[in-house]
Amino acid sequence: MSSNSNSPFPNAEPPTNLTLVTPKSEPVDENPPQFQPPAASPPPSADVYSEFNRISELFRRAFNQTEGAASALPDSHPDSRAIVLVPDPQTQASDVVVVPEAPGGSKKYPTRSSELVRVTDLKPNDQSYFRDLIRRARMLFDSLSVFAVSEEEKNFDPTVNNRKPRGDLKASALMRQSGLWMNRDKRVVGDIPGISIGDVFFFRMEMCVVGLHGQPQAGIDYVPAAHSSNGEPIATSVIVSGGYEDDEDSGDVLVYTGHGGQDKNLHKQVVHQKLESGNLAMERSMNYGIEVRVIRGFRYGGSASGKVYVYDGLYRIVDTWFDVGKAGFGVFKFKLVRIENQPDMGSVVMKFAESLRTRPLEVRPQGYVTLDLSKKKENFPVYFYNDVDGDHSPVYFEYLVTTVFPPYVYSVGGSGGCECVDGCRYGCFCAMKNGGEIAYNSHGILLRGKPLIFECGPHCRCPPTCRNRVSQKGVRNRLEVFRSRETGWGVRSLDLIQAGSFICEYTGVVLTHEQARLFTMNGDCLVYPGRFGHRWKEWGDLSQIFSDYVCPSYPSGPPLDFAMDVSRMRNVACYMSNSSSPNVFVQHVLYDHNNVSFPHLMLFAMENIPPMRELSLDYGVADEWNGKLAICH
Q1: N or C of the chain: less Cβ packing under 10 Å?
Q2: CA–CA separation, 144 and 149 (whole Å)
Q3: Could you count the other beta carbons within 10 Å of the beta carbon of residue 539?
Q4: What does the pLDDT look like over 24-39, one tens digit per residue?
Q5: 3.40.50.11030, 3.40.30.10, 2.170.270.10, 2.120.10.30: which CATH number matches 352-412+430-451+466-541+555-617?
């Protein structure tokens, strides 16, 4: 972990002053199914579809060769805590697992480490280092998942196969074979460096990729006794997702029912549980005083898996007993108590945000200046909250939903629109303008960042529900402008925002060069979009998976050479903080005109953003005193 040479992202700076405490050795555990490596792709042609076809071919070959492996994992994420049986130790005595790669060859993958460690005394620069590693790994996982599902949807026939595409399985397998699974060289007890309390995951496999929870199905992740140095299993993390009727969850105190003896279809006990495997591991962790990570799962309609998982921090197992459950069968129960002085539980924050969406004044009677800064101009109200001081200046600006361009921008001739009366498909006119592909999947998630995206416009025959009309529809989440003592103004969402989702437009009044000079002399607030960081290149970057991946260069436009006045008219985006590790990026989009020199600045999520977490942008140039964009000149 402390060696930069073992990092899946070697360009980051390594941490310093890490303290690793090793209580005992740990065995090798089971390995998830392996995918065959992708075949080499042909060089791109000069056709406008070349880049799209080349990337699609990479995915098609990689995924088609691994169809058998993918079917080895389940089609859903059950609540079952049945622990996978530990194979005979003699069958896993080696330090690598050999899986078929191709006829006549083999591929070796390192197995999970047998060393238990606890990472302590991380300095701020170390925390930033690990956070960036986790962030980049999760962004790659999300990008792969979205693109994989999109590839399957092209040829999906519900009459032949009604199984939902499993992009999470394919993304995790491709990352596995590329050596990008994290925390495999050592298994971490306690907090995983780089993962924060409140982080949200849409898939169990993503937690496996980053090492938060190493079992794709089981609720208890533990060191099997057969491989432990002292012959005793040790539990490291648990998932609480409501699958056991005898669980009792009050937040800081959790009574967790052991695994085994349950009918997975009825979600009821049908036989007595035994003190073995994960149950014994929980008891041994209590005996040794080893903390466990607790992840809670919730039903969530916006997730492909039907659930989300949120990391709630560290707990200690303080008691265990054998009891008669509600179904009349014996069950083991474990009492877990949350360790003090940790940030608020992510599950509590999510429930708090949910209550704010419906009962804001009841939940927070003090601090709200207005419940809709946009004055009903947005699809959802924009809250304005300030319990720090009396600064109410945001209410005095005129709220601007979309950017105001000079009239001459619309005089640039267009080339017509698509004829897709039922919605755009691959190969249509608008897809051709985007390099041969639709920029979004069927759920409105951006597949990958591009220099420029053409959405369907007023000359297209497709309906408002067309999948190529995403950012032009406006805000889809409940946003809140707030005041902070540390950083000044900020923006957060009351909803969970999925990676790749559209958030809002960065709006202002576009100025000519002459106008910009006058406004600068008057000291008005100007924003220079050309200085924004090109973070769009990171979303959908598959270079870690495919060595010949090339960053999209089409469609393209000239460098942005205009300013935007936000001194009198602006929207919620103007209050977003600047960050060198942002969770929001700018994507240039055209839809209402065809002048490539003046695109809309559309903001998309770089990662899964939990409710109440501040949104941040890379403005490129920030004020050195407060970390905000220096928009006043």
Answers
A1: C
A2: 9
A3: 24
A4: 333 334 444 343 434 4
A5: 2.170.270.10
